[in-house]
Amino acid sequence: MSGPEGEAGHAHRGHRRHRARDGREAGPDTAHAHHHDHGHGGHDHAAMVADFRRRFRVCLVLTVPILALSPAVQGLFGLERILAFPGDRFLLFALAAVVYGYGGRPFLAGMAEELRARRPGMMTLVAVAVSVAFLYSAAVTFGLPGKPFYWELATLVDVMLLGHWIEARSVLGASGALEALVRLMPSTALRLLPDGGREEVPVEDLRPGDRVLVRPGEKVPVDGVVVDGRSSFDESMLTGESRPVEKGPGDRVIGGAVNGEGAVVVAVERTGAETYLAQVIQLVRDAQATRSRTQDLADRAASWLTLVAIGGGGLTFVTWLVLGHPFAFALERMVTVMVIACPHALGLAVPLVVAVSTELAALDGLLVRDRAAFERARLLRAVVFDKTGTLTEGRFGVAEVVPLADLAPDEALRLAAALESRSEHPIARGIVRSAEERGLAPAAPESFRAVPGRGVEGVVEGRTLAIASPGALSERGVAVEEARIRPLFEAGYTVVFLLAREAEGERPLAALALADRVRPESREAVRRLRGMGLRCMMLTGDNRAVAARVARELGLDEWFAEVLPHEKASVIRRLRERGLVVAMVGDGVNDAPALVEADVGIAIGAGTDVAVESADIVLVRDDPRDVAAILHLARATFRKMAQNLVWATGYNLVAIPLAAGVALPWGVVLTPAAGAALMSLSTVVVAVNARLLKRTAGRAAAPTTRPPPRPAEAS
Questions:
Q1: Rounded distance, CA 400 to CA 407, Å?
Q2: Is 370 a catalytic residue?
Q3: Could you read off the pLDDT of 321-356 as tens digits, one per residue?
Q4: What are the two backbone dihedrals, phi and then psi, of residue 38, each rounded to the nearest 5 degrees?
Q5: Catalytic one among 210, 299, 386, 557?
Q6: Do residues 270 and 232 make contact, with C-beta atoms less than 8 angstroms apart?
Q7: Is residue 529 within 8 Å of 536, Cβ to Cβ?
Q8: Taking a C-beta distance cutoff of 8 angstroms, is the pair 289, 30 a contact?
Q9: Residue range 610-659, pLDDT digits in tens
Q10: What sections of 384-535 are H helices per DSSP?
Q11: Any idea what the Cα angle at residue 205 is, between residues 203 and 208, rounded to 5°?
């Protein structure tokens, strides 16, 4: 993007992003990082999994003798005479101290971090609960009247460690796609030397201009251009393209793509952080680190829940004491309330969904640059497409052949393609390409001659033929039946004529109607979007006749024709003033002002240029169906976030009163361990539900049975 308009687009976009990050996306410190990384090696989730697994196993082993030595458990099974012995309470204390010190350390360290940050949360609640239980039990062991909570303490720590272990594994699984992207890049490359030799070097030693040999089955080490050889490349993990892509000299290849059957030589273009894969990985990380409005809501709810847990626990303790219950019972109720009300699930509710959705999108070639805009996508009411290169192929093709003599349409196209095969004009290339697509084999022309602005002439299979523009017909003195060709002009086609020179003069053989052909994928994209309840529109600088034809063919709701690039933003602004939440889909270059003006800017067909500054979302493939895919993912992501938030907060409405003992008259009493199990279960439910996004997002948008609308031109 260049020029004043491009600079304005950059400035506007930069301002909008800065404002968003000062408000909705203020900083990378997510609730997930805050609650789960204290004392566990930062964001190294693999280390966290190993740490919690190790602590859980050690504490589980120690819990067995703690249960055996606890008087309450012995009395339950009548084992007092078998297992009790002098001094057993001191051994019980020692074992419980190890469980508290070793198993409880992550929670104690987390509490220290939260208190230093003046943000008490889940770790503080757990640490206070286990500390109260252990210190009170220790005091009882050394003379304070009451009963110890050692077995409750041990089982509580076990359940908490198990819950964190399962949670850490879920987080690691959610980040697995990102790690898979990192592993795609090979560590070494086979560099070709000027003398014809080869050397194996680390990828980081490659520089632009170097040439590397990529053998069959190997991964491309860096982004570059094929200079020798031809092969197919599997780019499915990079762009989401399921089929192998054929590449030859002059074609670009992406670092991390898997070479197929042939050896190729690649000239290095981009290395390190400039490669496509490195940019994708950074985009994924940035998107996961940004805060969303939904995350802010979860954080506020977690903060309130922390206050409720601390206040509710204290109130529960005092209430049971006032009602005349034993100190130990009141303490147990307080500990259970504090454990069961931990905002653990809330801390995971949004970040896990964000992690899964962002990485799922990246693997499908749908790159989220602005998470706030991605969230807004669920509110969209209209999608506006640029025409050329987005809904259409951006190149000419023969849409219709109208015979004007005794000649079959395919034969007329074959003769025209033979004549045009020597020309480089876009219309000529369109005619030749259309003939090839229909399996027609044109002959080589003789005595070929191009007449600038008028057409071409030559001899094909012994016949003197010409391709003439409409304006050249009168100059040649050729008359054509107007009624036969008028519909072609009214439909916005570009029309050329195939002429044959005969004894009596030139005779028209056929009229060839050419157009920028509508992509087959565009029809499916519009169908899916309309099935999602969205209005589909088109912006184009082309004339009204062409725009009307494309809009009619696709069944668009509205279209805007003869709109200059700098006027597109005004059209988007007027649509927003009508109360519509609008997405603009374009190529990210001449559509930059409109992409910035829209509520959601989507750059399509960006290929390896993922740093499209004017777009909120970048679609790597040149496929308009990906617009429906990203909007479907945005809706599914929000639903998962909402489900997780409802579950993470809603279960407390039942669990906290039960923990406080309101069901005691009916004989229902939750132990601290049972409370920890319920709290951990809520966390596991949230984690599993986030992972189910992969299944939900994979479902195509529901098809619509509505008839296509009559497209309306908007002024």
A1: 14
A2: no
A3: 999 988 888 888 887 787 777 666 666 777 778 778
A4: -70, 120
A5: 386
A6: no
A7: yes
A8: yes
A9: 546 677 888 888 889 999 999 999 999 889 988 888 887 777 778 888 88
A10: 409-420, 426-437, 470-476, 482-490, 520-531
A11: 90
